[in-house]
Design brief:
heterodimer; A: mainly alpha; Cytochrome Bc1 Complex, Chain D, domain 2; 11 helices; flat; B: 585 residues; mainly alpha; 73% helix
């Protein structure tokens, strides 16, 4: 009896805690998602709005730059006033020292992200460093790791907020931020049959599969005679490791490894293994 | 000298060596071939076994291992203190209680190892890339760990089985030396494991861009969060061990009919509650240091903890700690019934209750109204969003400090209720203590108000005088009491004269502690966000997200339940060991 009462009591406490955890706001902390950006089509206005997105999104700037004053509240400050003051401050020793104008302020903002300790806003330095070491992480390094184009976009955004015409260079198509690995994953569940998986990843548009008669890639019939499981796996997730005779490297996409679920890969391998040599 | 004395000397010597030169253990040979950086696994590098959620599995195993390990490390720690106390005071109760607990630890020990083994297996099978990298970083330390584990087993068995053989006089000292070695080895084990966990949060000794191993094992071990976590876990273990023993004693108290045994278990419950609270009182300060080190290592990580989605967890933490403090105090107040003069003090209980409940309420009140999920979503895209300010820190710090001061007061009242001072300056002494409390509390409140009025960046500074005040009240009044109650007339403490409901308060402690530890484990791991090794090795597994509080809460509850089931089994086993079937006639 004592046992039952004690256990019941303990369960009750646990239930209260669990219930409490379940009534608080439920937010899942997803890993940063890379938005697909068509860099070729970005004009300056596009860069500014990309910068704004990055500022509160992937760049996580608002984590610190907000009204709780862990860092200067860049969205509330009058940047048109504060930035020129920074450049004129004798404590500032960076590249834009004693310069003026939109170009110089752009350089200052850019530098603030790559080398924050070049100028530490008074009162915000690391404890005990006397405002010589910034607490702000270098934005081009992990964990934030923004690309040069993205850093330019934020620079443009902040220049714009300071009432200046952005001076950064527009990105060329090849500089575009890497397209997302995870895009679309949320909506689409994993395929449950091999045929659906082949369809999803478009294998039959290059290989002669399901009667597609495509010939960009080699025939896969009887592949199990030629390659063992491990080799087939490698051919799919690292296609350029070994190139099939008579075909060119870099034709088959090399990011299936990132896109496929393990279950899908297994389905496909199973399917390919059992493809008869002569259909 | 007898053989066992040599043995004792040898063990003391090795313990001293370990304590003085921990690097000895940790320095391992550099194997020059480690030039490659940290692996960059893709999703496919995470083996998928059936429909098992790898993270939840490893989470569960790790947490279970940790609970058991905390218990198995904590019990010897206070077994040896009890043993020491018992030896000094000649009070056999301490020794018997310590022995009773070591007995239970013995069956928990093999389960700890079992879960440790499963955890290692799970990690190597499900996260081969990460484990491969950690092995590269920590090289020979893994072997050292295995050796230590062996040593731990040997000393644990030695300590337990020699208890009766080395019971009195010099032999007792020899026995306590074995206990000392046992605890040294145990703590070192924990410190080594902590090095791995903290390396993943604040890696050092590796190249920051590639993750290539450039430093020694000691460099990776000595990362910025290692010592704060060591201290935090050390204190928490003591509190946790005390809480579990308290739960056991409470259960036995309720189940036992025999008056004498009831008295024994009541005393055991009181003593372990004392230990639990003694370990618990400094914990907020250790937590403070840990948080400060996190901020100084990476402001981003600090803010993710206190201002991002994890911020809500500190509200739950406040609720848990609040229930722990309330339960412990309630138990102490009930305890005033054990002494004849207790009633004189009982009239103050209602005031203490007001402060504790009031503090609790301040602590759990968020500054802004609770945001809805939608509002939180709008604040940012990636999960590192900041929420509305979470209660004002100075108010919360003031509340915590007052709660701690008054919990201590509850102890002091019980302690004094069975002692009448005989020194001539008793009246003045009491006045000083009262003044100390009054001035101290005023100071804590004033510092809180000051903190409230100053800008955010300096707010943290205001909490230091509060902590100092709290500690001063405790230390000075203990010192005064020691002198004032010297030679005091003691009145009888009627152990066993406790209402049944008081024992339920003792159950709140282990349950809340277990859940709290689960919660803190979840927070600690989540601080790495989507990194296996923060800034060095990305987590590309399908579960690289921070689960919602509800999901985490459910998981923690399930783990806690499993742990409780195991503890019930362990207790039952140790009772079974004593049961003897009558020979049929």
């Amino acid at each position: 009896m004592t046992f039952v009462r004690v256990m019941g009591f303990s369960l009750l406490i646990l239930l209260v805690y669990t219930g409490f955890a379940n009534i608080l706001p439920q937010v899942q902390g997803d890993p940063p998602k890379e938005e697909e950006i068509d860099a070729g089509s970005l004009d300056m206005a596009g860069m500014v709005s990309l910068g704004q997105q990055l500022f509160s999104g992937k760049g996580t700037c608002t984590l610190c730059h907000n009204k709780r004053l862990r860092a200067p509240d860049l969205l509330a400050l009058d940047l048109a006033k504060s930035f020129p003051q920074r450049l004129a401050d004798p404590r500032y020793t960076g590249i834009a020292k004693s310069k003026e104008g939109a170009q110089a302020i752009g350089e200052y903002i850019h530098e603030s992200m790559l080398d924050p300790s070049k100028y530490v806003v008074a009162g915000f330095g690391k404890k005990g460093s006397g405002d010589t070491i910034s607490q702000m992480p270098k934005i081009n390094l992990p964990p934030i790791s923004l690309s040069p184009v993205e850093i330019n976009a934020i620079t443009a955004f902040l220049q714009d907020r300071a009432g200046l015409t952005p001076t950064i260079a527009l990105p060329s198509a090849s500089e575009a931020p890497a397209p997302s690995n995870d895009a679309g994953e949320e909506e689409e569940g994993p395929s449950t049959t091999a045929v659906a998986a082949l369809e999803k990843f478009g294998c039959s548009s290059c290989h002669d599969l399901e009667g597609s008669e495509a010939d960009i890639g080699p025939k896969l019939n009887g592949i199990s005679k030629k390659l063992d499981d491990a080799k087939i796996t490698e051919a799919i997730i690292k296609p350029n490791a070994e190139i099939a005779e008579g075909f060119e490297a870099d034709t088959m996409p090399d990011d299936f490894g990132e896109q496929m679920r393990v279950s899908e890969l297994n389905l496909i391998i199973d399917y390919l293994k059992n493809l008869p040599e002569n259909p | 000298m007898k053989v066992r004395n040599y043995l004792g000397l040898f063990l003391i010597f090795s313990a001293a060596l370990l304590l003085l030169f921990p690097e000895l253990l940790l320095a391992a040979t550099d194997s020059g071939d480690i030039v490659a950086g940290a692996p960059r696994p893709s999703r496919l590098d995470y083996p998928k076994i059936a429909d098992i959620n790898s993270r939840t599995l490893v989470w569960g195993l790790a947490q279970m291992h940790l609970f058991l390990a905390a218990f198995v490390l904590a019990v010897p720690l206070f077994a040896i203190s009890m043993e020491f106390l018992g030896h000094l005071s000649g009070d056999e109760r301490y020794d018997n209680m310590a022995y009773e607990f070591m007995k239970i630890t013995m069956s928990a020990y093999s389960l700890t190892a079992l879960f440790g083994g499963s955890l290692a297996l799970g990690l190597f099978v499900l996260y081969p890339q990460l484990m491969g990298y950690l092995m590269k970083v920590f090289r020979g330390q893994v072997l050292v760990y295995a050796l230590l584990f062996l040593l731990e087993s040997v000393t644990l068995y030695l300590y337990y089985y020699s208890w009766k053989a080395l019971r009195y006089g010099n032999a007792k000292w020899c026995h306590m030396s074995i206990g000392l070695v046992l605890n040294t080895v145990g703590l070192t084990l924990m410190f080594v494991a902590n090095a791995w966990a903290t390396f993943m949060m604040s890696p050092t000794g590796v190249d920051p861009t590639t993750g290539a191993v450039i430093g020694s094992v000691w460099d990776a071990t000595r990362n910025p969060l290692w010592n704060p976590v060591n201290l935090h876990r050390f204190l928490a273990n003591i509190a946790y061990g005390g809480a579990i023993v308290g739960g056991y004693a409470a259960y036995m108290f309720l189940a036992e009919k025999d008056k004498e045994l009831k008295a024994h278990y009541d005393w055991m419950g009181y003593t372990s509650n004392f230990i639990a609270i003694a370990g618990f009182l400094p914990l907020p300060f250790a937590g403070y240091w840990l948080m400060a080190e996190i901020y100084s290592y990476s402001q981003q990580m600090g803010i993710t903890a206190m201002g991002g989605i994890l911020a809500w967890l500190f509200i739950i933490q406040a609720v848990l700690i609040g229930t722990i403090v309330l339960a412990a105090n309630y138990y102490l107040w009930c305890g005033l019934m054990r002494t004849d003069r207790g009633a004189e003090y009982a009239k103050y209980v209602k005031y203490i209750a007001v402060v504790i409940v009031g503090g609790f309420l301040v602590w759990v009140t968020p500054n802004s109204l609770i945001l809805t999920t939608e509002e939180i979503r709008q604040l940012g895209g990636t999960g590192h969003k900041f929420l509305g300010p979470l209660g004002i820190m100075p108010a919360k710090n003031t509340a915590v400090n007052l709660m701690l001061v008054f919990t201590f007061l509850s102890f002091q009242m019980f302690y004094r209720s069975s002692r009448i001072p005989t020194v001539s300056w008793a009246r003045q002494g009491n006045m000083v203590i009262i003044a100390l409390y009054v001035i101290g509390c005023a100071n804590i409140v004033a510092a809180g108000i000051y903190g409230y009025l100053t800008p955010t960046v300096y707010k943290v500074g205001a909490s230091v005088p509060q902590v100092v005040t709290t500690l001063s009240i405790i230390i000075i009044s203990v010192t005064i009491d020691v002198f004032m109650l010297r030679g005091a007339k003691t009145t009888k403490v009627h152990w066993g004269r406790m209402p049944e409901r008081s024992q339920y308060a003792l159950f709140v402690l282990p349950v809340a502690f277990t859940w709290l530890m689960g919660l803190m484990g979840y927070i600690r791991s989540s601080l790495r966000t989507s990194w296996h090794v923060y800034t060095i090795m990305k987590d590309k597994s399908p579960e690289a997200y921070i689960p919602t509080i509800g999901e985490a809460g459910n998981t923690i509850t399930i783990i806690t339940l499993s742990f409780m089931a195991i503890m019930v089994f362990v207790f039952w086993l140790s009772r079974l060991g004593e049961t003897r079937q009558e020979k049929p006639t």
